Amino acid sequence: MDIKHMKYFVEVVDQKGMTNASKSLYIAQPTISKAIKDLEKELNMTFFDRSKRQLVLTDAGKVFYKKCKEILTLYKDLPKEINSLLGLETGHISIGLSAVMNMNKFIHILGEFHQQYPNVTYNLVEKGGKMIETQLINDEIDIGITTIPVDQDIFHSIPLYQEDLKLVVNKEHRLANREQINMAMLKDEDFILFNEDFYLNDKIIEAAKNAGYVPKTISKISQWNFIENLLSAHLGVSILPENIVNLLDGNFKNITIDDPGMRWELGVIWKRDKYLSHATRKWIEFMKERL
């Protein structure tokens, strides 16, 4: 048994068949098939129920798959652990960023961090909070900056900052002269919201339902600057975090919402059972000190 055979087995399960695994790995299907049969022979177990037309794992196959995933993760992270033990200030950090966070502040902090650790490289991915959590679970990114609280059984988290959510309207909108409104007053408005990947979407819909209605959503967006364009065209109203509101030009009016649910908190989150490199741990400490 070797690490290569484990990779073949995991890929077959993930790709739901040897044909797809063969294409993914660029390896001939007979080679993969032989590797799996060798594993089964060595362990004296059967991993697949071959009486089924579709790929079905046996109980032994399910256990072996889980353990292979753990071993492959340890194998992948071994160089990171060695670097950490040697105290090397190098590494690569993959970060999932909320599309509705204060990006200017983040970039400024990233620049400061780079001055101290110039050999660290980054991959920055801008997504909604739900997608960030999914990518963390699938080990596609190292850390995420998104809405908290999160499921503490799955993630660690560190709070960064809290902010109000504000109603944003075109300055010619009927509510533009108001200093404060409540959610019930927006019952007949057209809403421009972020899409379902964003927890902000859920928060707004929940607040509206608590006020007795389901918001009429005319558009769902993944980038806040598109919302700005739609507001300029008088297509509706939106609810945005205060830091985003402060980036808008003078064509809009932001209004306080009298609702305790119209506030949120962002934080750094990472998967509980995932090894964090020395560079990633340094980055978390650095962010915590400055936000």
From TrEMBL:
<dbReference type="GO" id="GO:0003677">
    <property type="term" value="F:DNA binding"/>
</dbReference>
<keyword id="KW-0805">Transcription regulation</keyword>
<dbReference type="InterPro" id="IPR050950">
    <property type="entry name" value="HTH-type_LysR_regulators"/>
</dbReference>
<feature type="domain" description="HTH lysR-type">
    <location>
        <begin position="1"/>
        <end position="58"/>
    </location>
</feature>
<dbReference type="GO" id="GO:0003700">
    <property type="term" value="F:DNA-binding transcription factor activity"/>
</dbReference>
<dbReference type="Pfam" id="PF03466">
    <property type="entry name" value="LysR_substrate"/>
</dbReference>
<dbReference type="InterPro" id="IPR005119">
    <property type="entry name" value="LysR_subst-bd"/>
</dbReference>
<comment type="similarity">
    <text>Belongs to the LysR transcriptional regulatory family.</text>
</comment>
<dbReference type="Pfam" id="PF00126">
    <property type="entry name" value="HTH_1"/>
</dbReference>
<dbReference type="InterPro" id="IPR036390">
    <property type="entry name" value="WH_DNA-bd_sf"/>
</dbReference>
<dbReference type="InterPro" id="IPR036388">
    <property type="entry name" value="WH-like_DNA-bd_sf"/>
</dbReference>
<keyword id="KW-0238">DNA-binding</keyword>
<dbReference type="GO" id="GO:0005829">
    <property type="term" value="C:cytosol"/>
</dbReference>
<dbReference type="InterPro" id="IPR000847">
    <property type="entry name" value="LysR_HTH_N"/>
</dbReference>
<keyword id="KW-0804">Transcription</keyword>
<protein>
    <submittedName>
        <fullName>LysR family transcriptional regulator</fullName>
    </submittedName>
</protein>
